[in-house]
Specification:
The protein has 18 helices and eleven strands. It is an alpha/beta fold. Keywords: Transferase.
Length: 400
């Protein structure tokens, strides 16, 4: 990125764990904000130690941040954080309902210290009867109907990634940027809320509207009656799978030309998308037989020549070597280790481009060790070396 990052000069205190809060901090940090991850001493963010499929959470969502590991339950630790709040622009947190208030770091407490503060509360639910309930990504996928729409009939299924955590984080950042813009005019900060449940409901809004418009509840996606004539997964002769979508009449003509389907192109019963959707029970089996007799590379080339939407069926591990991501700067060499060191692996960059030269947000800091930046953060806030040493001696500050 040429010149300063868009959010350079913005100071953010992040009190977070798992995905939703760290993801919001990541978006701000990647765009240039100085994000200080305030971690609870002595253990820090528990995702540093998660096993199995969750072992990559910390590395994925905590680059470009500084770490301050401090005991907020102690009066001195709380007072130290309050000192940092004085000149902060944003505080973000995703702890359970009431946790930040019990720690003396809720909206009312911190806004009294800094009236210009924008405070992002990332929760399970926004205001209403559910607001005191804890929630997780999977919980709201089930409650909102998203899991019902994802799995086969009678077998609700969560999506294959923490999409609601990430969506709620992005909505939260959007709210923060709007509040900062409003602060430019009023001089005052405000509390911004984003939540998992409402984010999940937003995703099923089109299904709600469709139910109201037709009087029929939409079936789960695996059993759906699609709106498009061709919108399907196919297997090639060499046992590779790809998805093909033909969603307009112009695409249909090109598809027929490239796949040498002159008879279908001339068939008036297949002339429009609505007619093709009606005749899917006979159309799709014919195309499965056709594509099933062709090599994958041949199908791929014809789809490209027809300029229609298609995709191979990939796996996450395939993305490490994806030529498009590698060429466009879509992967950042990130330290994949619970303590911030270790091997470097390519992980996804923020999916944004900036400027006429289409630059991606860079990796400027590897995911931090716990408390790695205690001294520099507190020295910048005006604490002298003796004061910082005393916090270490009392166990209020830790690093590792």
């Amino acid at each position: 990125m040429t010149g300063p990052n868009p959010l350079q000069g913005l100071k953010v205190l992040e009190f977070s764990h798992t995905i939703m809060g760290p993801c919001a901090g990541l978006v701000l940090a990647d765009m240039g904000a100085d994000v200080i991850k305030v971690e609870p001493a002595p253990g820090g963010d528990h995702t540093r130690r998660l096993p199995g499929f969750a072992a990559g959470f910390f590395a994925t969502f905590n680059r470009n941040k500084r770490s301050l590991a401090i005991d907020l339950k102690s009066p001195d630790g709380r007072a130290t954080v309050h000192r940092l709040v004085r000149d902060a622009d944003v505080v973000l947190e995703n702890y359970g309902p009431g946790t930040m208030e019990r720690l003396g770091c809720g909206w009312e407490q911190l806004s009294a210290i800094n009236p210009r503060l924008v405070y992002l509360a990332l929760k399970g639910f926004l205001a209403g009867p559910y607001e005191d309930r804890p929630a997780l990504d999977e919980v709201v996928q089930f409650q909102s109907g998203l899991a019902h729409m994802t799995g086969p009939p009678g077998q609700p299924l969560r999506a294959g990634a923490s999409i609601i955590d990430i969506l709620g984080a992005v909505f939260g950042v959007t709210g923060v940027l709007a509040a900062l813009r409003e602060r430019d005019g009023t001089g005052k900060g405000q509390r911004v809320g984003s939540a998992l449940f409402e984010s999940a409901v937003f995703l099923v809004g089109s299904h709600m509207a469709g139910t109201a418009a037709t009087g029929e509840a939409p079936p789960p996606m695996p059993a759906r009656r699609g709106a498009w004539g061709i919108y399907d997964l196919f297997e090639t002769q060499d046992h590779r799978q790809l998805f093909v979508g033909v969603t307009s009449d112009q695409q249909w003509k090109r598809f027929c030309a490239e796949f040498e389907l002159a008879g279908m192109a001339a068939d008036p019963e297949l002339a429009t998308n609505a007619l093709r959707a009606k005749h899917r029970p006979t159309l799709i089996p014919h195309l499965r037989e056709l594509i099933g007799g062709m090599a994958y590379e041949d199908v791929r080339a014809r789809c490209n020549a027809a300029n229609i939407s298609w995709a191979p069926v990939g796996r996450p591990a395939d993305m490490f070597d994806d030529p498009h991501l590698l060429a466009g700067g879509g992967l950042l060499q990130t330290a994949i280790s619970a303590i911030g060191g270790g091997d470097l692996v390519p992980l996804p960059a923020l999916p944004l481009e900036f400027g006429g030269d289409r630059q991606r947000a860079p990796l400027l800091r590897q995911p931090p060790r716990i408390g790695e930046h205690n001294r520099e953060v507190l020295a910048a806030a005006g604490l002298d070396a003796a004061g910082i040493d005393s916090l270490y001696a009392a166990g209020i500050l830790v690093e590792g």
